[in-house]
Design goal:
With about 220 residues, this protein is an alpha/beta fold. The protein contains 10 helices and 5 strands, in the order E-H-E-H-H-H-H-H-E-H-E-H-H-E-H. It binds adenosine-5'-triphosphate and ligand L45E5XJ5. This is Cytidylate kinase.
Protein backbone atom coordinates (compact mmCIF):
# COMPACT_ATOMS: atom_id res chain seq x y z
CA UNK A 1 0.00 0.00 0.00
CA UNK A 2 1.37 3.45 -0.87
CA UNK A 3 2.09 5.91 1.92
CA UNK A 4 -0.38 8.78 2.53
CA UNK A 5 0.64 12.43 2.65
CA UNK A 6 0.51 13.13 6.39
CA UNK A 7 1.92 16.58 7.16
CA UNK A 8 2.96 17.06 10.80
CA UNK A 9 3.43 20.68 11.87
CA UNK A 10 4.79 21.23 15.38
CA UNK A 11 6.25 24.21 17.20
CA UNK A 12 5.85 26.66 20.07
CA UNK A 13 2.92 29.00 20.72
CA UNK A 14 2.23 31.70 18.13
CA UNK A 15 5.04 30.57 15.83
CA UNK A 16 2.55 30.59 12.94
CA UNK A 17 2.27 26.82 12.66
CA UNK A 18 -1.54 26.88 12.58
CA UNK A 19 -1.57 29.45 9.80
CA UNK A 20 0.93 27.41 7.80
CA UNK A 21 -0.84 24.10 8.50
CA UNK A 22 -4.24 25.44 7.44
CA UNK A 23 -2.80 26.82 4.21
CA UNK A 24 -0.98 23.58 3.45
CA UNK A 25 -4.22 21.66 3.99
CA UNK A 26 -6.00 23.94 1.55
CA UNK A 27 -3.21 23.74 -1.01
CA UNK A 28 -3.11 19.92 -0.94
CA UNK A 29 -6.85 19.39 -0.43
CA UNK A 30 -6.31 17.55 2.87
CA UNK A 31 -8.35 17.53 6.10
CA UNK A 32 -6.83 19.68 8.86
CA UNK A 33 -6.82 19.30 12.64
CA UNK A 34 -5.59 22.00 15.03
CA UNK A 35 -4.84 19.69 17.99
CA UNK A 36 -4.29 22.63 20.34
CA UNK A 37 -8.06 23.20 20.25
CA UNK A 38 -8.58 19.81 21.93
CA UNK A 39 -6.39 20.77 24.90
CA UNK A 40 -7.96 24.22 25.02
CA UNK A 41 -11.44 22.64 25.14
CA UNK A 42 -10.36 20.37 28.00
CA UNK A 43 -8.93 23.31 29.98
CA UNK A 44 -12.06 25.43 29.48
CA UNK A 45 -14.38 22.48 30.10
CA UNK A 46 -12.69 21.86 33.41
CA UNK A 47 -12.93 25.50 34.48
CA UNK A 48 -16.56 25.72 33.34
CA UNK A 49 -17.54 22.85 35.62
CA UNK A 50 -15.82 24.50 38.58
CA UNK A 51 -12.85 22.13 38.48
CA UNK A 52 -9.28 22.98 39.38
CA UNK A 53 -6.47 22.94 36.83
CA UNK A 54 -4.46 21.05 39.48
CA UNK A 55 -6.93 18.13 39.40
CA UNK A 56 -5.50 15.59 36.93
CA UNK A 57 -8.34 13.08 37.38
CA UNK A 58 -11.02 15.69 36.72
CA UNK A 59 -9.12 16.94 33.67
CA UNK A 60 -8.91 13.40 32.31
CA UNK A 61 -12.68 12.93 32.83
CA UNK A 62 -13.34 16.10 30.81
CA UNK A 63 -10.99 14.88 28.07
CA UNK A 64 -12.76 11.51 27.91
CA UNK A 65 -16.15 13.24 27.53
CA UNK A 66 -14.94 15.64 24.82
CA UNK A 67 -16.88 15.75 21.55
CA UNK A 68 -17.26 18.05 18.53
CA UNK A 69 -19.81 20.25 20.35
CA UNK A 70 -16.99 21.47 22.64
CA UNK A 71 -14.95 22.78 19.71
CA UNK A 72 -17.34 25.30 18.18
CA UNK A 73 -16.73 28.49 20.22
CA UNK A 74 -13.44 29.33 18.51
CA UNK A 75 -13.27 32.90 19.86
CA UNK A 76 -13.32 31.64 23.44
CA UNK A 77 -11.13 28.63 22.67
CA UNK A 78 -8.42 30.88 21.25
CA UNK A 79 -8.41 33.51 23.98
CA UNK A 80 -5.51 34.02 26.38
CA UNK A 81 -7.04 32.17 29.34
CA UNK A 82 -7.81 29.09 27.26
CA UNK A 83 -4.18 28.87 26.10
CA UNK A 84 -2.93 28.97 29.67
CA UNK A 85 -5.50 26.39 30.85
CA UNK A 86 -4.65 24.13 27.90
CA UNK A 87 -0.96 24.04 28.69
CA UNK A 88 -1.74 23.14 32.32
CA UNK A 89 -3.99 20.16 31.49
CA UNK A 90 -1.75 19.07 28.60
CA UNK A 91 0.87 17.98 31.12
CA UNK A 92 -1.36 15.22 32.52
CA UNK A 93 -0.63 11.80 30.93
CA UNK A 94 -4.29 10.77 31.41
CA UNK A 95 -5.50 13.76 29.39
CA UNK A 96 -3.03 13.00 26.59
CA UNK A 97 -4.04 9.32 26.59
CA UNK A 98 -7.73 10.27 26.35
CA UNK A 99 -7.09 12.41 23.25
CA UNK A 100 -4.64 10.04 21.56
CA UNK A 101 -6.92 7.69 19.59
CA UNK A 102 -8.95 10.50 18.01
CA UNK A 103 -5.81 12.27 16.79
CA UNK A 104 -4.19 9.08 15.50
CA UNK A 105 -7.37 8.13 13.63
CA UNK A 106 -7.53 11.61 12.09
CA UNK A 107 -3.90 11.38 11.00
CA UNK A 108 -4.30 7.96 9.41
CA UNK A 109 -7.10 8.81 6.98
CA UNK A 110 -6.41 7.06 3.68
CA UNK A 111 -5.94 10.28 1.67
CA UNK A 112 -3.62 11.88 4.22
CA UNK A 113 -4.10 14.80 6.63
CA UNK A 114 -2.46 17.89 8.11
CA UNK A 115 -2.21 18.24 11.91
CA UNK A 116 -0.56 20.95 13.98
CA UNK A 117 0.44 20.80 17.64
CA UNK A 118 3.39 19.91 19.84
CA UNK A 119 3.76 16.13 19.49
CA UNK A 120 2.44 15.36 16.01
CA UNK A 121 5.77 14.33 14.50
CA UNK A 122 6.91 12.48 17.63
CA UNK A 123 3.79 10.75 19.06
CA UNK A 124 0.63 11.19 16.98
CA UNK A 125 2.07 10.50 13.52
CA UNK A 126 5.75 9.51 13.79
CA UNK A 127 5.27 7.84 10.39
CA UNK A 128 4.43 11.17 8.68
CA UNK A 129 6.54 11.64 5.56
CA UNK A 130 6.49 15.45 5.89
CA UNK A 131 7.38 17.02 9.23
CA UNK A 132 7.96 20.69 10.02
CA UNK A 133 9.00 22.32 13.28
CA UNK A 134 7.94 25.95 12.99
CA UNK A 135 9.50 28.46 15.34
CA UNK A 136 10.36 32.16 15.84
CA UNK A 137 11.91 34.14 18.68
CA UNK A 138 9.77 34.57 21.79
CA UNK A 139 9.63 38.35 21.20
CA UNK A 140 8.33 37.96 17.65
CA UNK A 141 5.80 35.33 18.73
CA UNK A 142 4.59 37.49 21.60
CA UNK A 143 4.21 40.42 19.19
CA UNK A 144 2.14 38.31 16.79
CA UNK A 145 -0.11 36.96 19.56
CA UNK A 146 -0.43 40.40 21.16
CA UNK A 147 -1.56 41.92 17.84
CA UNK A 148 -3.98 39.04 17.28
CA UNK A 149 -5.64 39.25 20.72
CA UNK A 150 -5.66 43.05 21.15
CA UNK A 151 -6.95 43.30 17.57
CA UNK A 152 -10.10 41.57 18.70
CA UNK A 153 -10.54 43.49 21.91
CA UNK A 154 -8.59 41.63 24.61
CA UNK A 155 -6.68 43.99 26.93
CA UNK A 156 -3.13 42.71 27.57
CA UNK A 157 0.18 44.43 28.24
CA UNK A 158 2.92 43.29 25.84
CA UNK A 159 5.19 42.32 28.77
CA UNK A 160 2.48 40.00 30.11
CA UNK A 161 2.04 38.45 26.68
CA UNK A 162 5.78 37.80 26.43
CA UNK A 163 5.80 36.27 29.93
CA UNK A 164 2.86 34.01 28.92
CA UNK A 165 4.73 32.78 25.85
CA UNK A 166 7.97 32.10 27.75
CA UNK A 167 6.11 30.28 30.56
CA UNK A 168 4.14 28.18 28.05
CA UNK A 169 7.34 27.27 26.16
CA UNK A 170 8.97 26.11 29.40
CA UNK A 171 5.95 24.10 30.46
CA UNK A 172 5.39 22.48 27.05
CA UNK A 173 9.06 21.60 26.51
CA UNK A 174 9.73 20.58 30.11
CA UNK A 175 6.86 18.18 30.83
CA UNK A 176 7.42 14.43 31.05
CA UNK A 177 4.44 13.43 28.87
CA UNK A 178 5.01 14.01 25.13
CA UNK A 179 7.08 17.19 25.56
CA UNK A 180 7.34 19.70 22.73
CA UNK A 181 10.48 18.71 20.84
CA UNK A 182 11.57 18.79 17.21
CA UNK A 183 11.32 15.26 15.77
CA UNK A 184 14.68 13.99 14.50
CA UNK A 185 13.38 13.90 10.93
CA UNK A 186 11.51 17.24 11.06
CA UNK A 187 12.71 20.26 9.11
CA UNK A 188 13.18 23.42 11.18
CA UNK A 189 11.41 26.50 9.80
CA UNK A 190 12.36 29.70 11.62
CA UNK A 191 9.79 32.34 10.64
CA UNK A 192 11.26 35.16 12.76
CA UNK A 193 12.07 37.28 9.71
CA UNK A 194 9.33 35.96 7.43
CA UNK A 195 5.90 37.32 6.68
CA UNK A 196 3.04 34.82 6.30
CA UNK A 197 3.44 34.48 2.54
CA UNK A 198 7.19 33.85 2.75
CA UNK A 199 6.72 31.34 5.57
CA UNK A 200 4.05 29.47 3.62
CA UNK A 201 6.24 29.33 0.50
CA UNK A 202 9.10 27.92 2.57
CA UNK A 203 6.77 25.35 4.16
CA UNK A 204 5.49 24.30 0.77
CA UNK A 205 9.03 23.74 -0.48
CA UNK A 206 9.70 21.50 2.54
CA UNK A 207 6.57 19.46 1.79
CA UNK A 208 7.47 19.22 -1.91
CA UNK A 209 10.93 17.90 -0.99
CA UNK A 210 9.31 15.30 1.29
CA UNK A 211 6.89 14.27 -1.45
CA UNK A 212 9.74 13.82 -3.91
CA UNK A 213 11.74 11.82 -1.36
CA UNK A 214 8.82 9.49 -0.58
CA UNK A 215 7.41 9.32 -4.11
CA UNK A 216 4.10 10.93 -3.08
N1 LIG B 1 5.01 34.77 9.51
C1 LIG B 1 4.13 35.53 10.16
N2 LIG B 1 4.30 36.86 10.21
C2 LIG B 1 3.42 37.65 10.88
N3 LIG B 1 2.32 37.19 11.53
C3 LIG B 1 2.10 35.88 11.49
C4 LIG B 1 2.98 34.98 10.82
N4 LIG B 1 2.49 33.74 10.97
C5 LIG B 1 1.38 33.83 11.71
N5 LIG B 1 1.13 35.12 12.01
C6 LIG B 1 0.04 35.64 12.84
O1 LIG B 1 0.40 35.35 14.19
C7 LIG B 1 -0.74 34.92 14.93
C8 LIG B 1 -0.47 33.51 15.47
O2 LIG B 1 -0.40 32.63 14.38
P1 LIG B 1 -0.91 31.14 14.50
O3 LIG B 1 -2.25 31.07 15.19
O4 LIG B 1 -0.80 30.51 13.17
O5 LIG B 1 0.19 30.53 15.48
P2 LIG B 1 0.23 29.10 16.17
O6 LIG B 1 1.65 28.70 16.23
O7 LIG B 1 -0.71 28.17 15.49
O8 LIG B 1 -0.33 29.46 17.62
P3 LIG B 1 -0.90 28.47 18.75
O9 LIG B 1 0.20 27.59 19.17
O10 LIG B 1 -1.30 29.34 19.86
O11 LIG B 1 -2.03 27.71 18.14
C9 LIG B 1 -1.92 35.02 13.98
O12 LIG B 1 -2.55 36.26 14.16
C10 LIG B 1 -1.28 34.96 12.59
O13 LIG B 1 -2.03 35.63 11.61
N1 LIG C 1 -0.45 18.48 20.21
C1 LIG C 1 -0.58 19.38 21.22
C2 LIG C 1 -1.26 20.57 21.03
C3 LIG C 1 -1.37 21.44 22.07
N2 LIG C 1 -0.85 21.12 23.27
C4 LIG C 1 -1.03 21.98 24.44
O1 LIG C 1 -2.12 22.87 24.28
C5 LIG C 1 -1.70 24.21 24.45
C6 LIG C 1 -2.48 25.08 23.49
O2 LIG C 1 -2.08 24.73 22.17
P1 LIG C 1 -2.07 25.82 20.99
O3 LIG C 1 -1.35 25.12 19.86
O4 LIG C 1 -3.48 26.12 20.67
O5 LIG C 1 -1.33 27.00 21.49
C7 LIG C 1 -0.18 24.21 24.24
O6 LIG C 1 0.50 25.22 24.96
C8 LIG C 1 0.19 22.82 24.75
O7 LIG C 1 0.37 22.83 26.15
C9 LIG C 1 -0.17 19.95 23.43
O8 LIG C 1 0.34 19.66 24.52
N3 LIG C 1 -0.05 19.09 22.40
Amino acid sequence: MSQALIIAVDGPAASGKGTIAARLAKAYGLPFLDTGLLYRAVGLGLLDTGGSLDDAAAAEAVARALDASHLTDTDRLTDRGAGEAASRVAGYPGVRAALLAFQKTFASQPGGAVLDGRDIGTVIAPEAPAKLFVTATAEVRATRRWKQLTGRGEVIAFEDMLADIVRRDERDAGRGAAPMVQAEDAVLLDTTDMDIETAFDAARRIVEAARAKHGL
